[in-house]
Amino acid sequence: MLLIVLAAVFAPLVAPFDPYKESVISRLKPIGWRGHLLGTDELGRDMLSRLIYGGRVSLLMGVVPVLIASLVGGLLGVVGGFAGGRVNTAIMRAMDVFYAFPSVLLAVAVAGAMGGGIGNGMLALTLVFIRRCAGSRRPRRPRCARSTISRRRGRPAPARSW
User: Fold this and answer.
1) What is the pTM of this model?
2) In this structure, what are the phi and psi dihedrals at residue 23, rounded to the nearest 5 degrees?
3) 10 Å Cβ neighbour count for 150?
């Protein structure tokens, strides 16, 4: 796993060929042809180089939404813990609303409403992961942060629903 991540991060140094360079002469060549370890595609581009460069986008789409969702979920928990009362109830009920939709359906609906693109895909994934990070089935970030802050401020911890 570490090797794959390092290859994706250092793709310009590791990739044997330019992944965007097309060649009509070398299109659809087999594995191992003239240094192309995985062959070439319909436009003559090196498949291994394209695979390594594609790993960069995959890592970006996998890591960034989780980090953003964790930060937002933790922040919502801290705000709910400090404010308490109606603010806390509103935040936790808003998080519970996310559970009315299956995660794949929610991501497809958000991405479909906003259109294609990496940015909109990241936003859709972030909204789905906020639901997981702020989930009501297990005490994730907002609920953990909320209960920790409530205890430190001298208020009783909220009742658990799980």
Assistant:
1) 0.75
2) -150, 115
3) 18
The more confident residue out of 106 and 134 is: 106
Annotate 94-142 with three-state secondary structure. HHHHHHHCCHHHHHHHHHHHHCCCHHHHHHHHHHHHHHHHCCCCCCCHH
Rounded Cα distance between 57 and 53, Å, is 7
Taking CA atoms, 33 is separated from 21, 41, 55, 122, in Å, by 16, 12, 23, 37
- For residue 36, what is the DSSP state? B
Token duo for residue 89: 């109830």
Distance of CA 79 to the CA centre of its chain: 23
Neighbours of 48 (CB within 10 A): 20
- Digit-coded pLDDT (tens) for 28-80: 999 999 999 999 999 999 999 999 999 999 999 999 999 998 898 888 878 88
Cβ neighbour number for residue 118 with a 10 Å cutoff: 11
